[in-house]
C-alpha cells in the first residue's frame, strides 16, 4: 500500500513537472515565433537604389523614371533615394541585360518597356526572357498613333486603307526602330489585313517625325506623347490609334479595334527586378512607387509630357507582360522575324 501511495505521489510530481516544463517550453516557442516574425521584416532600403533606364535621356521612359525618382524618398522606408542611370543601346536590351545580371537584393531595379521585354527576347540575341524578372508595378501606358502630313490626301482611316490596299508597298512609315513595339504592331496589321506597307526604321520617334515632316516618308507610327504637339499645331493628321485606349486629346481618332482590326498594344513602362529578389522587397518597392505615382507633382509632370499614370499591381503587370510576349512571338513567327 505504501509502495502504491509512493508511486502515485511520484506520478503526480512527474505530471506537475511535465506541465511546468511544457508551459515554459510553450512560452519559449511563442517568443521564438515572435522573434521570427520580427526577423521577417526586411530593413530595406538602407542605401540608395539604382534605377536603370534602358534608353537615352529625354524620352518618355526616362522622363517617367526621373519624375518618380524625384519624389520617391518621401515614400521609401528610411527616406532612401533612387538614382537614375541611362544604359541605352540594343533597342533597350543592354540596360535590361544589366538588370538581369544584377545582384538580387533590390538595389538595382529597371524601368522596363514592352520592346526589350516582350519582343527582343524572341530574337535569340539576348540572354534573358520575361520570366527572368519579377514585375513590381506598371506606371505608364501610352498608345501609338499613325500620323501623316496635314496636306496628305487621306483624311480618314477608310481613305488611307483604300490607298494602301490598292498600292502595295507604296506607303512608307517610320518608327523608333526595327523590332520595337511600333514595328511589330504594323507587322501584325499586315498579317491581319493583308495590306502591304513599307517600314523605315529610325533611332527614335523624334527622328521618324522629322523625316515625315521633311517629306522623306509618308507616315509615322509613334507614341501619342511624341505626336501630340504636331497634331495640335496642325502639321500632322492622325489616322488611327493602335493602343487599347485613347488619350483625351485624340478622342475622335479611331482605334484599330473600332475598325474591326484585331490589333492593339500600348507602349507600357514599369519597374522590374531580378527574379530572385525577395517578395518582401518587391512589396516595399510596389507600395512606395504606388504612393509616388499618386503624388500631385508626379501627376503634373506626367501631364506635361502628355502621359498619365497608368497603374497595375505586380500580378496585373505580369499578366500584361506574359500576354504581350505570347502575341509578339506569334506575330514575329508569322512574318519570319523570330530568331
Automatic annotation (TrEMBL):
Keywords: Signal. CDD domains: PBP2_Bug_TTT. Residues 1-26 form the signal peptide. It comes from the Bacteria. Belongs to the UPF0065 (bug) family. This is Bug family tripartite tricarboxylate transporter substrate binding protein. It comes from Metabacillus herbersteinensis. The lineage of its organism: Bacteria, Bacillati, Bacillota, Bacilli, Bacillales.
